Amino acid sequence: xxxxxxxxxxxxxxxxxxxxxxxxxxxxxxxxxxxxxxxxxxxxxxxxxxxxxxxxxxxxxxxxxxxxxxxxxxxxxxxxxxxxxxxxxxxxxxxxxxxxxxxxxxxxxxxxxxxxxxxxxxxxxxxxxxxxxxxxxxxxxxxxxxxxxxxxxxxxxxxxxxxxxxxxxxxxxxxxxxxxxxxxxxxxxxxxxxxxxxxxxxxxxxxxxxxxxxxxxxxxxxxxxxxxxxxxxxxxxxxxxxxxxxxxxxxxxxxxxxxxxxxxxxxxxxxxxxxxxxxxxxxxxxxxxxxxxxxxxxxxxxxxxxxxxxxxxxxxxxxxxxxxxxxxxxxxxxxxxxxxxxxxxxxxxxxxxxxxxxxxxxxxxxxxxxxxxxxxxxxxxxxxxxxxxxxxxxxxxxxxxxxxxxxxxxxxxxxxxxxxxxxxxxxxxxxxxxxxxxxxxxxxxx
Length: 446
Prior knowledge:
By secondary structure, the protein is of the alpha/beta class. It has a single domain, classed as Alkaline Phosphatase, subunit A (3-Layer(aba) Sandwich), CATH 3.40.720. 28% of the residues lie in helices and 15% in strands. Strands 1, 4, 5, 8, 9, 12, 13 and 16 form an eight-stranded mixed beta sheet that branches. A two-stranded antiparallel ribbon has the order 2-3. The longest helix has 25 residues. The radius of gyration is 22 Å and the shape is globular. Pfam families: DUF1501.
């Protein structure tokens, strides 16, 4: 196997030269890249400029300590934080998010997410569905749907990229599954196990300073191919695959060090270390997400830290929330400055909320009855709060918003008509993306 960021190279004299194109499916289940490209072409491509960045907070963030501070609740529920005013009159959020407060006119806070399955996983935040009673093949992630419906924008760049690392609690490291759409529409994963998919003959991102460096690393292979006459025999998909491997566009997008240092400082670097069984605090992933979208990726999924705070809720919040505040605000401002925010949707959420009552360890436990989300961009209306919970933050008292409603809204923002787009499952039965006649795009946002 040829590894196109890792330390292993499998292209050697013991493998045929045609095996050069069999690159382990780019972490897509073992398909060859030509097969993936052929499947993508069969699905059809589109020139839509729409895209999405999905930010998952593994473990379930505390809604009442973020966007829904309950100052009138008893001390054992209210917690330690106070609200601050945002740029939008009448909208307050936690004091640990001053940067987001300053750009709240570009954001929408949902305080009344319902329908959580209660499972500790990313699945529902990536698909909009429970993992129970799935159709044959399973529900596809939103990024896989984009890959299927629109195809890649650029043959040198995958339609769907997942930046979440492999986690000890595996469901938190899920970048999204292609489900019944097939492995051709799975996310490309340049981190974790997929890290070996981005090295050409030992040339790492640190050395990929130009397209010339990538091409020069293949000179010997090119000569061998040309001498054997194999190049003339490659079909169109093999040639396209070869073009991807000899292009530095994806590697360049992943190399955030190419950014101006001031841009990197705005996002922050964070910490590239797994938080227990959760994800990393790697803030540069937010910058990489923007770079990937700009390079032509349609969907980027990423995770940040670990939010399953059964103990020391407020200590952990003082560490993680300011970091999240910095990275998300930098991302939104960056997209806006580059004229991309109207086309690119951003969603920030976790799998469920936390208990109103603080436990004996100073933490909050699992609470699927209500949670929160933040959305921005994608042409959606902004500068508002949607939904309201009761005085204790236990359940919605107005405008409960189901996961499927959020996905219906996101699909609309991405130009996909949920009333007409139905994709076949593994038994050939057409499947609508959203439960028909049950959930619609949110009128507050569209």
